[in-house]
Task: inverse folding
């Protein structure tokens, strides 16, 4: 028996960091097989095969798998799962959709967003927006997990390629139709993995105000993030939301601009190494988790800061 | 057409929870409880579909001890037509798989065409129930919906993804989970809150529904997260900030 890790893909490209973290999280437990499912995935399959610790790569490569619909992913995973002790994916919007479905098809629970693996059956995970950590023990054989990427290392060496095996898969009966994806395309670093993140909140006041945040991020080569209030107000795209119910980030440097520090926002950034707050309120709650606090008007502070860099 | 909206009673989102000193769980004594905010959004969406005449009946359902009837009354006050309580003895832990199985049993019994639910509960932060239920029913699913349109016998759903938005078309019956931007839930009016007090709630049990709710996970311990040890340094200028960040290596 061994462990099945589901490779994280965007279209036909491997999200190497997220996939490596999932492999790293569990490779101490047993041999790891990796499922690469999608369309035109020969390249990511080859990349995965060369990752240290991978014993075998299973490839499902079909045109109908191009959008990696949760229904199709879950069917494939549920068919494979009985041969493995653990089924593991990095936490993402897509794994949060397909993995619980796959687990239910196998009559299994799912343990989400694991931050520490205590032993083969015992896992730590945050609850209540990270205001508590629970340690849960699974009483099942065949454990479904998603791991929180910010809690695991992505550093994996290379190895001579592991064997790659094509899987015969058939499309299931569910008739969800993929219509379109609208993906923001800019060449900024990915929010989830960038070493520096600059986030803007309601304090920026307008979409134009948010551009100051974007300019600072560009000056620093940083990713752009946002609070829920900034996304709700239409200043920033929804995939930039950081927090309990958005993305969880842990960069080397997090700069929070015009963000008050609600529990739900802090849940997504409190593991950042260095936190800088730029906020006109000298008592903003976010100061409590900050390393540097600059209590000032962001509209003068950001141009100054951009000029000083 | 009938819509089912499962609603969970959780610690209010504005409460900063405290872990019990003995590590046995969260201290819920005297803590404000509310309907899970994402479930509120799901319920609002279902009510709007009914107000548009596209849905005949919205049923709210909650699972847990007697106290969850508060949440069902809140759902009735918002505009749900019916309320179902699946009763569990107090302090019975239940995990998402068991919840999904109970919902599966109710859906099969009462013939719903759509289950609209929250994308996650803000206590466990798991988000397992929706996809699990869809799996058990073998229905199509859309997770993290921020826009939903019902066109005859199918739904067009815009969902939030890791890199933007995705539009899906789902034939009914289907399961859809609500994200924050789907709508802004209404407040219940005082007269509706009063009326909801005397509305009937159908009470069911897992045994009646033939569902084994034995948990598959055992919670071993709960602890507070490690505190950030540092106290913030106040800076007064851009130069000051840049100097400090360079000195500690946060900026190259
Ligand atoms: C179910 C649920 C889930 C949620 N999930 C998330 C989530 O994932 N992520 C998230 O972020 N939030 C989330 N929230 C929302 C959260 O509770 C807060 O409402 C939100 O984070 C507030 O955003 P903000 O800090 O930008 O706005 P505010 O709280 O309004 O803060 C604005 C800040 O800007 C400062 N400011 C104003 N003008 C200036 C100026 N000129 N210069 C400098 N500073 C200025 C103010 O002092 C203030 O501190 C969630 C809420 C709920 C109910």
Result:
């Amino acid at each position: 028996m061994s462990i099945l890790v589901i490779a994280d893909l965007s279209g036909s490209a491997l999200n190497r960091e997220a996939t490596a973290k999932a492999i790293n999280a569990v490779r101490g437990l047993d041999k790891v097989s990796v499922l690469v499912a999608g369309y035109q995935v020969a390249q990511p399959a080859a990349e995965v095969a060369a990752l240290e610790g991978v014993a075998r790569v299973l490839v499902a490569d079909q045109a109908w798998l191009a959008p990696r619909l949760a229904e199709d992913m879950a069917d494939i995973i549920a068919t494979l799962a009985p041969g493995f002790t653990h089924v593991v994916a990095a936490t993402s919007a897509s794994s949060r959709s397909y993995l619980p479905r796959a687990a239910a098809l196998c009559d299994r629970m799912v343990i989400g967003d694991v931050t520490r693996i205590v032993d083969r059956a015992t896992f730590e995970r945050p609850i209540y927006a990270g205001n508590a950590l629970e340690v849960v023990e699974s009483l099942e054989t065949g454990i479904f997990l998603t791991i929180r990427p910010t809690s695991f290392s992505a550093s994996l060496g290379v190895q001579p390629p592991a064997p790659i095996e094509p899987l015969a898969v058939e499309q299931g009966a569910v008739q969800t139709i993929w219509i379109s994806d609208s993906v923001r395309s800019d060449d900024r670093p990915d929010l989830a993995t960038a070493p520096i993140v600059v986030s803007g909140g309601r304090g920026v006041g307008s979409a134009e105000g948010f551009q100051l945040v974007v300019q600072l991020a560009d000056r620093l080569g940083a990713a752009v993030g946002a609070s829920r209030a900034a996304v709700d107000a239409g200043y920033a795209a929804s995939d930039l939301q950081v927090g309990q119910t958005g993305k969880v980030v842990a960069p080397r440097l997090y700069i929070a601009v015009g963000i008050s520090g609600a529990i739900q926002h802090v849940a997504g950034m409190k593991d950042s190494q260095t936190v800088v707050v730029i906020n006109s309120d000298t008592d903003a709650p976010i100061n409590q988790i900050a390393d540097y606090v600059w209590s000032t008007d962001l509209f003068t502070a950001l141009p100054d800061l951009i000029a000083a860099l | 057409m009938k819509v089912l909206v499962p609603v969970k009673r959780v610690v209010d989102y504005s409460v900063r929870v405290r872990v019990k000193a003995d590590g046995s769980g969260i201290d819920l004594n005297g803590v404000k409880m509310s309907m899970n905010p994402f479930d509120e959004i799901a319920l609002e969406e279902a009510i709007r579909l009914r107000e548009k005449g596209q849905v005949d009946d919205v049923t709210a359902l909650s699972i847990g001890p007697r106290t969850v009837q508060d949440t069902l009354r809140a759902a009735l006050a918002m505009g749900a037509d019916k309320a179902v309580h699946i009763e569990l003895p107090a302090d019975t832990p239940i995990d998402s798989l068991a919840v999904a199985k109970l919902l599966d049993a109710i859906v099969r019994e009462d013939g719903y065409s759509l289950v609209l639910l929250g994308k996650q509960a803000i206590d466990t932060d798991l988000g397992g129930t929706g996809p699990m239920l869809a799996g058990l029913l073998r229905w199509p699913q859309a997770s993290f919906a921020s826009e939903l349109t019902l066109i005859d016998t199918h739904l067009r759903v815009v969902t939030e993804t890791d890199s933007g938005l995705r539009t899906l078309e789902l034939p009914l019956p289907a399961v859809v989970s609500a994200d924050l931007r789907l709508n802004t839930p209404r407040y219940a009016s005082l007269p509706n809150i009063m009326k909801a007090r005397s509305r009937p709630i159908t009470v069911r049990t897992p045994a009646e529904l033939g569902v084994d709710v034995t948990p598959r996970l055992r919670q071993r311990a709960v602890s507070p997260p490690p505190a950030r040890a540092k106290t913030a340094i106040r800076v007064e200028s851009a130069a000051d900030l840049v100097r400090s960040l360079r000195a500690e290596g946060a900026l190259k």
